[in-house]
């Protein structure tokens, strides 16, 4: 894959191309290695953490991928100074075909506006292709509360945890920077509802995901409206 081509990376002429495309390449390979498929939201958050650590300002975009055959797929990607960066790996796609589709101008990225309902009309195309539906509420919570959502994902989903651990190693080895350690349970000192701080042992854990922390049942009940969409049970390794 050529990471200097749209939408996989920045053109070689861009001053930030070397550092940006190196991170994108490593991240893409990490996804393949750990079978991280169609996880555009998680991948975009991880990449933003990586780019923030090396002072490359990117923003996360949320919308649909439109194809010339009128197929529409919900999607999340990054934007760097007007450049689309789409780094999501998909296991079910033939990679050569996938690359051709993305680089030949047969699809376009449409950022969401105030009405998010239309972004998920593409789920009927997902089902036809055998791709699981995207959960609109899950996406919205993930993008609104990226760090708390990532904490659950890396601890409760072994493949996500392995992928994120590897990216932390790469950023440390190649760029001498650290990205947030979501594995550190000793850092769980803040209520997810009110942001109040307490010693770890005094906070109550969600009985389902066993990650989210709360001062008491009142705070937990207050947070449930959003937390329920990303309250993922621990998976076995």
Structure description:
With 237 residues, the protein is α+β, with helices and mostly antiparallel strands. Helix content is 40%, strand content 13%. It has eight helices and six strands. The strands form two sheets. A four-stranded antiparallel beta sheet has the order 3-2-1-4. It has a two-stranded antiparallel ribbon with strand order 5-6. Helix 5 packs across helix 6 (146-156). It starts with 16 loop residues before the first helix and ends in a 10-residue tail after the last helix. Residues 114-132 have low confidence and may be disordered. GO terms for molecular function: methyltransferase activity; zinc ion binding. This is Histone-lysine N-methyltransferase ASHR1. Keywords: Metal-binding, Methyltransferase, Transferase, Zinc, Zinc-finger.
Which helices and strands occur, and which strands form pairs?
Elements: H1 17-33, H2 40-53, E1 59-67, E2 72-80, E3 83-85, H3 95-103, E4 107-111, H4 123-128, H5 136-144, H6 146-156, H7 158-175, E5 204-205, E6 213-214, H8 217-227
Antiparallel strand pairs: 1-2, 1-4, 2-3, 5-6
Can you describe this structure in just a few lines?
One of its GO terms (biological process) is methylation. Keywords: Metal-binding, Methyltransferase, Transferase, Zinc, Zinc-finger. This protein is of the alpha+beta class and 237 residues long.
Spatial separation of the terminal alpha carbons: 30 Å
Mean pLDDT: 85
Q: Sum up the overall morphology in one term.
A: globular
How many domains make up the 3D coordinates? 2
């Amino acid at each position: 894959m050529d990471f200097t081509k749209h939408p996989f990376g920045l053109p070689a002429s861009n001053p930030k191309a070397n550092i940006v495309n190196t991170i994108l390449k490593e991240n893409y390979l990490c996804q393949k290695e750990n079978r991280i498929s169609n996880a555009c939201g998680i991948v975009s958050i991880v990449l933003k953490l990586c780019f923030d650590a090396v002072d490359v300002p990117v923003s996360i975009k949320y919308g649909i991928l439109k194809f010339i055959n009128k197929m529409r797929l919900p999607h999340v990607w990054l934007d760097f100074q007007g450049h689309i960066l789409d780094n999501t790996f998909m296991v079910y796609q033939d990679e050569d075909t996938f690359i051709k589709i993305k680089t030949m101008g047969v699809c376009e990225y449409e950022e969401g506006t105030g009405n998010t309902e239309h972004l998920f009309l593409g789920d009927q195309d997902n089902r036809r292709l055998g791709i699981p539906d995207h959960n609109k509420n899950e996406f919205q919570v993930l993008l609104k509360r990226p760090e708390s959502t990532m904490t659950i994902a890396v601890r409760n989903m072994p493949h996500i945890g392995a992928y994120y651990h590897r990216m932390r190693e790469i950023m440390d080895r190649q760029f001498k920077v650290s990205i947030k350690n979501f594995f550190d349970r000793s850092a769980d000192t803040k209520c997810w509802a009110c942001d109040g701080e307490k010693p770890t042992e005094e906070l109550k854990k969600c009985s389902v995901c066993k990650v989210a922390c709360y001062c008491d049942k009142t705070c937990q009940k207050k947070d449930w409206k959003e937390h329920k969409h990303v309250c993922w049970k621990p998976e076995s390794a």
